[in-house]
Design a protein that fits this description.
The protein is of the alpha+beta class. It has a single domain, classed as SH3 type barrels. 35% of the residues lie in helices and 29% in strands. It contains 4 helices and 6 strands. The chain has helices spanning 3-10, 14-23, 46-54, 86-91, and strands at residues 35-37, 40-41, 62-69, 72-77, 80-85, 92-93. The protein has a 4-stranded antiparallel beta sheet. Strand 3 (62-69) and strand 4 (72-77) form a beta hairpin. The chain is globular and about 30 Å long. It comes from Photobacterium profundum (strain SS9). GO terms for molecular function: transition metal ion binding. Keywords: Iron. InterPro entries: Fe-transptr_FeoA-like, FeoA_core_dom, Transcriptional_repressor_C.
């Protein structure tokens, strides 16, 4: 994948980041069986952001929280289900 496209999809400008933080909640605060639009991914760690991107988790994509088991979040993105930890769930702004 072209790195420019990847960087544009993963990063938010400082203005967008501030606005998104004021209005968005993260996935760990989401309700089960509800569909959300991803507003951004903010992890502070490029490896986490890259991993979430490989799952299809990026700004503008639809995500559904299927269930929460202990600190494991089962999510659905693009008709695929994944189990992610609470640190990854907190990085996804919805």
């Amino acid at each position: 994948m072209n790195s420019t496209i990847f960087n544009d999809a993963m990063t938010l400008s400082s203005e967008d980041l501030e606005t998104t933080h004021q209005t968005a909640q993260n996935l760990s605060q989401a309700k089960v069986n509800q569909e959300y639009l991803i507003k951004g991914v903010v992890a502070g760690d490029a490896d986490i952001e890259n991993f979430l991107f490989t799952l299809g988790c990026f700004k503008g994509e639809t995500i559904t929280l299927i269930s929460i088991l202990s600190e494991s979040y089962v999510i659905s993105i693009k008709d695929a289900r994944y189990s992610i930890g609470s640190d990854l769930a907190q990085a996804v702004l919805v």
